[in-house]
Amino acid sequence: MTDFSQTRAAFDLPEGVIYLDGNSLGPLPRSAAERVARMMTQEWGRLLIRGWNEAGWYVQPRRVGDRIAPLIGAEPGSVVMGDTLSVKVFQALSAAVEMRPERRVILSDSGNFPSDLYVAQELVAALDRGADRGVDRGVDREPDLGLELRIVAPEEVEAAIDDSIAVTLLTEVDYRTGRLHDMAALTARAHAAGALTIWDLAHSAGALPVRLAEAGADFAVGCTYKYLNGGPGAPAFIYVDPRHADAARPALAGWMGHAAPFAFDPHWTPASGIERMRVGTPPVLALTALEAALDIWEGVSLDALRQESIRLSEAFIAAVAARLPGLPLASPREPERRGSQVSFRHPDAYAIVQALIARGVIGDFRAPDIMRFGFTPLYLTLVETEKAADLLADVVLTEAWNQPEYRIRAQVT
Amino acid sequence: MTDFSQTRAAFDLPEGVIYLDGNSLGPLPRSAAERVARMMTQEWGRLLIRGWNEAGWYVQPRRVGDRIAPLIGAEPGSVVMGDTLSVKVFQALSAAVEMRPERRVILSDSGNFPSDLYVAQELVAALDRGADRGVDRGVDREPDLGLELRIVAPEEVEAAIDDSIAVTLLTEVDYRTGRLHDMAALTARAHAAGALTIWDLAHSAGALPVRLAEAGADFAVGCTYKYLNGGPGAPAFIYVDPRHADAARPALAGWMGHAAPFAFDPHWTPASGIERMRVGTPPVLALTALEAALDIWEGVSLDALRQESIRLSEAFIAAVAARLPGLPLASPREPERRGSQVSFRHPDAYAIVQALIARGVIGDFRAPDIMRFGFTPLYLTLVETEKAADLLADVVLTEAWNQPEYRIRAQVT
């Protein structure tokens, strides 16, 4: 039985704040600062360069990956940490398109996080310009033979998967609406069409049970600073289905992914398995903070977490609807079609979120009109949830948001 | 006047250790652990998501870049932090080859760090396969029209620069021998031939005066965990000559490099200037440790540092030569042709380095036969340098290294 009062006690939460933004940046685990300080003074300070072996820094990306694996339904040894989510998307996507050389379409949707689309767009553009470079300039290349990034509406993804698709690049949970894709069904559909799948788990890992191996997902990537509470800029993870791991060839490769990094061979020979997705020197401070955060997950049942997340989000929706029946819900109404967030639309969403923050309820604004609230049972209670709904209703009904100080445009949100 | 006893006092150095491996991992600055703990508890813990604006995390990659800039002779606003050195090499190289579409050769040398070569090799391979994908399969592509990575000996680089070269990819200081390339001369030669230059400053930044702007270098990249003492896995930096910054188009692009990251536009529009080289969420913990390390550089004259580095390395060479006249120096004998390290060759280099470490002198082994010693005036004294030379001679002359415990093959060195 998961005791969420115990997990809550493991976080250092500021007084007077109801935090509904753990889907953007998780809070500080109580043990993290001391853990990082100890790593710095005892390992870096005392061992110096010897820390790579003696403190296990070198194997930390795999060790931490093995702790992420059970949270995303992955096999041990199939996950490795490093870099940022965008870099890992780049590696997964470049490897996947290589594995389907006869196909030309990368399929994504308009609910995907823009950075994933940017990575795809610029990879396609670079490969396309690479093709121009390669062609005998006396012969025109057919313009439709290169790769194409095709973006459809989220509800059109399933129908758009056909045998032209090399790979689908989808974020399981929509960062604005919380809409949850059916990973198992879409993966099966992609495989039936001969396509590969890349799943971005930014809003899934630590938010709900993920079953990568069961779904047969080919690649997955995610970040650890949201529901996994690793801290600002915490490193990303990448998963490669063990069936593919020895075939995957990322366009971005570095020495830590070499079969023998310390042989200093001038030629890159990929390590076997997931190790080849390592690039440069791992971020030891950040991985150490993340290790402290992952301790909190020991003994937490993901099914119990999901149940509690639904209880909180349903209570929030009901409480908001009772007082603001006209406020449009931007999230699916059925909890099983949502991740662990609830979004509403309002033309003054930005100012309302600012006014709420001033009252101690931290949510998020997403352009153009989304108010986004994350539900994180590890540290969020039902009492807080209901109070947040009340404060939201107070702000909207009294037009408390309609003050100049709340209407300044966000520089960063 | 730079007072190196004061900079030495700013480091937490373990008792009984003479550290000649600051060119692999710099030691712990005394203020770093407390600085990171304060960032974690006061900023992350109290501000949560608001830290991105209120604690300046969002602008940290540029703020820290502006502190690196004077150490490498770069203009303010021309350097940004993030990712790892290999990722930054990838960005610089992909942008550079785009800027020379009519040329096909990337020129590097066998003294370059292997990871740079791996990045180049796999980028070339990916673009080449992209070209195969793009070509009408009825027409064979000329195999010699794609990009080529050409690797010559370091002393042959200058002669190899001709008008086939798109870009040179060179590490200024050889990681094994310490041989220093003439950045100004090679950059001038490259420009005369119409080529661009990428300088890897891994063993230069903080080791000697670097004059990027004066040399007219086009791109530069470097890491911060060696002579800059940022800690294990500290983030990399990238420099783009302001003349090119708005033209450079890296194949790897993310939302933090977008002109308007928080508009969540589905299309990537590069930010102006160096900002476009940002990719994902910046590593705030690591950047905070690095900021503490950079404080130590305030008031340090790079010319005084260079002078002291030469004094230490010359004393080391002289002391070793006096007792081990037959030991081959792997580094250039003239100090102005070296970086801030001295290397010797010995068939039992690995075992000798292990035996030295057991005696408190930490140096580095680099395959197959290099013993490498870094000289870091910020915290290394002449007395330590001479003692280290003596201990090296003792170990070699008494064959103290010839014990089974020192002969085990390195797993990680």
Automatic annotation (TrEMBL), chains A, B:
Homodimer. Its cofactor is pyridoxal 5'-phosphate. GO terms for cellular component: cytoplasm. One of its GO terms (molecular function) is kynureninase activity. Its EC number is 3.7.1.3. Keywords: Hydrolase, Pyridine nucleotide biosynthesis, Pyridoxal phosphate. It comes from the Bacteria. Belongs to the kynureninase family. One of its GO terms (biological process) is quinolinate biosynthetic process. The modification N6-(pyridoxal phosphate)lysine is found at K226. PANTHER family: KYNURENINASE. It comes from Haematobacter genomosp. 1. This is Kynureninase. Catalyzes the cleavage of L-kynurenine (L-Kyn) and L-3-hydroxykynurenine (L-3OHKyn) into anthranilic acid (AA) and 3-hydroxyanthranilic acid (3-OHAA), respectively. Pathway: Cofactor biosynthesis; NAD(+) biosynthesis; quinolinate from L-kynurenine: step 2/3; Amino-acid degradation; L-kynurenine degradation; L-alanine and anthranilate from L-kynurenine: step 1/1. Pyridoxal 5'-phosphate binds at L85, S86, F113, P114, S115, D116, T171, D200, H203, Y225, W255, T281.
